[in-house]
Design goal:
- The chain has 30 helices and 32 strands.
- By secondary structure, it is of the alpha+beta class.
- The chain has 6 domains: 5-174, Dynein light chain 2a, cytoplasmic (Beta-Lactamase), CATH 3.30.450.30; 197-297, PAS domain (Beta-Lactamase, 2-Layer Sandwich), CATH 3.30.450; 301-438, PAS domain (Beta-Lactamase), CATH 3.30.450; 456-550, Beta-Lactamase (2-Layer Sandwich); 649-805, 2-Layer Sandwich (Heat Shock Protein 90); 827-944, Rossmann fold.
- Strands 21, 22, 23, 24, 25, 26 and 27 form a 7-stranded mixed sheet that branches.
- A hairpin with a 2-residue loop joins strand 16 and strand 17 (467-471).
- Helix 5 runs antiparallel to helix 6 (134-142) and helix 19 packs across helix 26 (835-847).
- The longest helix has 53 residues, at 552-604.
- 28% of the residues are buried.
Length: 947
């Protein structure tokens, strides 16, 4: 319960007490409600009252003090203190009644310690600052009391407890007054209740003598209540009922509770009245101490029953022969008659139907409907303007003996006595099950039609000359309008202006084939739309039904299809070039091996000053260019043999930094960034270097006047949404390599062909058009992905994604070239089916001191070794040869000589080499074309390995 202090305390007396307390202690006090209303105020310091709180600026700070103290009190603190900027201290304590915080006691405007000179000087400056009369202000300053914190808390605690004690005393008095008030109200209430009860109430002692009878005795019995006080048995009971009533009374005196005893009395006019008597004994300690009685006048009910019985005889013959069921019931919902036709309708005999309650004969919903109708009709009985004797017809579902139900149309009206009072209900029930089945079938049909109508994957509308008459939910979904907004709308508003002429023309011509238009949603958005219409009769009119289909997804799918077809064509084109490159690679590389080897051997045999030296260099340069072109073709077509390592891309870029700076020139600033530690990738280091160099060179050419080249690395995750837009990319974790420039940029048309082989925007003689296609091939060979972002005049960014691996990184080594070609004395067998390549390999190895044998096939090599019983140190064999390939030959040779070392070589592409198993990890391989130095170095390395 919420208490108000003003209701519990005499505020005027409390004010006198606080005035006396302030006078005695020199401490101000105030009692405030939780909302800040001041109930009492005593002893306020003049410096606060006349100066501080009177000045608008300082008053704001004083209000802060009040608010802070009140807020802390509301949060349940016992004491709250506040020291203002001028050193004055305020304190507050709560007043709590029955655990409820109802008010606060406030005190303060004191110093806790005597003010020193600096404090006095501060107040003098305050006087000047705010324009106070200095003399008067300082006089008020000296009046401020100095009270210790303990004394201040004791004073406020005393005052809070004093107020609380007074309030609690007031609360006790208030509660006592409330109790007396409630007692008086209770007696008055029960007195009124007894007077309002229409029945006679009677209280008897344990012997059956009346000690109290309510005033209603005169209404019920026809005698005043005092007639029966002190009488044990009245003599007004009808002689035929006396014995029954006496027996009833004796049973009650013995402690039995008997109810609803109906008997007759003779009133003082000599007329018979029927009463219903209920007697309830009050038992204490197993003895009846008093008896409580209720007596009702039921004369009208008895007369009504008699009237009904008389009435029944008049129409029973007609009712028994009617096909409809005729029934009557009283106002207590008990059947008094049911015609014989009930057995045909519901399977019950009339006797069985009468014994059932109305509630049992109806389904719950129908019973609820009946009760509502009866109550509504009974309410109209007391309305003089309401229509009487009206028939109410309703449809009810009744229960049958076999557990089924039957639908009936029931017409009801009240049965009235001679005075026009309703004493029962009569009804006629007709079986309408067949009609209900028909109606239900129709509703189900309509429901199914509506369900199909609304379940359509498109919007359906019926319109008359463009005005929408009907529509389904699908049209709302497509257009954004609600059904209420659509009905009555001009359907052309759902069509973009770009298509309205077309749609109107088709409406006027009665066009009935599907066609496409541009739709317009409620939010103004346009979308591709497919329309199909039919002219149909509807409610006596010729109207047009139209299906709306949002074909946005279909259009997007069509675009995606074209995109995928273009990608497929591009992939097929690249694969064709790859097959072409792979087809010529073997022969071309064999020729280049012979050319490069012979030229370099020839140059070794002449002095550097020989005029032929320069010629040999030019031949070698041309051959190397041809070899590089072959490598680019193979890389583009993803046929190049790769030697993958687990590596840290940051480390690789760090090793390339100096070379890249030299490559791009001093006029371009090179910047590298990495976002923290980087995940590892598994790639061929030389090919990743080739990616970076190719993209760096392109960036350099895009910045002829200088600029910035930025290389960034970071971990990246490509999700399903990204892969949906890039169908050839698999979702997962990648390492991102981004190479950006602020050069001239690339136009959209060029971007469409940027990775095509032999496509170049450079002038003739300055590029093969294989640079970016090579990059593309390398990245795809590593299961990666590349994207380009560029705008003319704003530079270009290539973003390369390489898959992450979770393994230990391999160490990257910087190979230093040696001026001298490695030599040796071991025995080497060279097996090569191409004469030119075999001869150059023999020359190179013999020149370096090796003992060399040769064969042009695997079979001849095996026969040579067996015939001469050769003890070989190294087998150098081509992989792809007729009849017996190099891998098969090596396996046979190693079986014969387990310590034999093997070096494989080939000019074929990766897919061919992979088919012969050469790409297994740990096998030694040198690709064609190779130089004398590369072959000699590789041979030496293989011979020096421990395995």
């Amino acid at each position: 319960m919420t208490y108000n202090l003003k209701e519990l305390v005499d505020i005027e007396k409390l004010q006198k007490i606080t005035d006396e307390l302030s006078s005695a202690s020199s401490v101000l006090s105030a009692v405030l409600t939780l909302d800040g209303e001041i109930l009492t105020s005593s002893g306020w310091q003049r410096i606060c009252k006349d100066f501080h709180r009177a000045h608008p600026q300082i008053a704001k700070e004083c209000n802060k003090s009040d608010t802070k103290l009140r807020k802390e009190m509301n949060q349940g603190e016992w004491f709250a203190m506040y020291k203002c900027p001028r050193g004055l201290v305020d304190i507050s304590a709560p007043i709590i009644i029955e655990g409820e915080h109802i008010a606060n006691v406030f005190s303060g405007q004191v110093f806790l310690e005597p003010p020193d000179n600096s404090t006095e000087q501060f107040f003098r400056e305050q006087a000047k600052k705010f324009g106070f009369d200095e003399k008067d202000y300082m006089s008020a300053f000296k009046e401020i009391p100095v009270i210790s914190e303990d004394k201040l808390k004791s004073t406020i605690s005393f005052l809070a407890r004093l107020v609380q004690m007074i309030a609690e005393n007031g609360l006790q008095q208030l509660k006592e007054l409330e109790v007396y008030k409630k007692l008086d109200e209770s007696e008055e209430k029960y007195r009124m209740m007894i007077q309002l009860i229409p029945d006679m109430l009677m209280l008897m002692d344990s012997k059956g003598v009346a000690v109290y009878i309510s005033p209603q005795a005169e209404t019920v019995l026809g005698y005043p209540s005092e007639t029966f006080i002190g009488i044990d048995f009245p003599d007004i009971i009808h002689k035929d009922d006396v014995e029954r009533v006496l027996k009833h009374q004796q049973q009650v005196i013995l402690g039995e509770k008997l109810t609803d005893l109906e008997y007759r009395i003779i009133d003082k006019e000599g007329s018979i009245r029927w009463v219903s008597h209920t007697a309830t004994p009050v038992i204490e300690n197993n003895q009846v101490v008093r008896i409580f009685n209720i007596v009702k006048n039921v004369t009208d009910k008895k007369l009504a029953e008699q009237t009904l019985r008389e009435s029944e005889s008049k129409y029973r013959l007609l009712a028994e022969n009617a096909s409809d069921v005729i029934w009557t019931m009283d106002l207590e919902q008990k059947y008094t008659y049911v015609s014989a036709s009930v057995e045909k309708m519901r399977g019950y005999t009339p006797e069985e139907a009468i014994n059932a309650s109305v509630e049992e004969t109806l389904t719950p919903a129908s019973y609820e409907k009946v009760i509502q109708v009866i109550m509504q009709e009974l309410e109209k009985e007391n309305d003089p303007d309401a229509e009487k004797n009206r028939t109410v017809t309703m449809e009810l579902e009744q229960t049958c003996k076999d557990g089924t139900t039957v639908w009936t149309e029931v017409s009801t009206s009240f049965i009235r006595n001679e005075d026009g009072l309703a004493i029962g209900v009569m009804g006629i029930a007709r079986d309408i099950s067949e009609r209900k089945k028909t109606e239900n079938a129709l509703r189900e049909s309509e429901k199914r039609f509506k369900a199909l109508h609304n379940a359509s994957f498109g919007g359906i509308t019926i319109h008359d000359k463009g005005v929408i008459l009907e529509c389904n939910h699908g049209l709302s979904v497509i257009t954004g309008y609600s059904a209420d907004e659509l009905i009555g709308m001009d359907g052309l508003l759902l069509i973009s202006e770009k298509s309205r002429d077309l749609v109107m023309s088709n409406i006027l011509s009665g066009y009935e084939k599907p066609y496409e238009a541009i739709g317009l949603r409620k939010n103004g958005e346009e979308y591709p739309l497919r329309l199909e219409a039919r002219n149909v009769p509807y409610k006596g009119k010729n109207v047009r039904t139209v299906e709306f289909r949002d074909i946005t997804d279909a259009k997007e799918a069509e675009k995606e299809k074209f995109k995928l077809e273009a990608q497929l064509q591009q992939s097929q084109k690249m694969e064709s070039i790859g097959r072409l490159a792979g087809g010529v690679a073997h022969d071309f590389n064999n020729l280049l091996t012979g050319i490069i080897g012979n030229v370099m051997l020839a140059k070794m045999d002449i002095s550097p000053d020989d005029p032929l030296s320069e010629t040999f260099d030019e031949i070698n340069q041309a051959a190397q260019s041809a070899a590089n072109l072959t490598h680019q073709l193979l890389a583009f077509s993803r046929k190049q043999i790769i030697k993958p390592k687990v590596l840290d891309l940051n480390e690789l870029i760090k090793n390339l930094n100096k070379m890249l700076q030299r490559l791009i020139g001093e006029h371009i600033e090179l910047r590298t960034f990495s976002k923290g530690s980087l995940s590892l990738i598994k790639s061929d280091p030389s090919q990743v270097e080739q990616i970076i160099i190719n993209l760096a060179v392109n960036a350099r050419d895009a910045m002829p006047n200088g600029g910035k080249l930025t290389i960034e690395t970071a971990d990246a995750s490509l999700d399903a949404e990204y892969c949906k837009k890039h169908p050839h990319v698999e979702a997962g974790n990648y390492v991102l390599l981004a190479i950006s420039d602020n050069g001239v940029g690339i136009d959209k048309e060029t971007q469409q062909h940027i990775f095509d082989p032999f496509y170049t925007t450079k002038e003739e003689g300055r590029g093969t058009g294989l640079g970016l296609s090579t990059v593309y091939g390398i990245i795809k060979q590593h299961n990666g992905h590349i994207e380009v972002y560029s705008e003319l005049g704003h530079g270009t960014t290539f973003r390369v994604y390489l898959p992450v691996v979770y393994d230990k990184a391999d160490k990257l080594t910087n190979t230093k070239t040696r001026a001298d070609i490695p030599e040796g004395t071991e025995t080497v067998l060279v097996v090569e089916d191409e004469d030119l390549v075999r001869n150059i390999a023999i020359k190179i190895l013999k020149r370096q001191g090796y003992k060399v044998y040769s064969a042009d096939s695997g079979g001849n090599a095996q026969a040579l070794v067996e015939d001469k019983n050769l003890a070989l140190d190294l087998l150098v064999t081509d992989i792809v040869m007729p009849n017996m390939n190099g891998r098969e030959l090596a396996e046979r040779m190693v079986t014969r000589s387990p310590d034999l070392k093997v070096l494989y070589t080939s000019g074929y592409t990766e897919d061919v080499i992979g088919h012969h198993g050469i790409l297994d990890e740990g096998l030694h391989f040198i690709g064609k074309p190779y130089t004398p130095f590369e072959l000699a170095k590789k041979v030496r390395k293989v011979l020096d390995t421990s395995q």
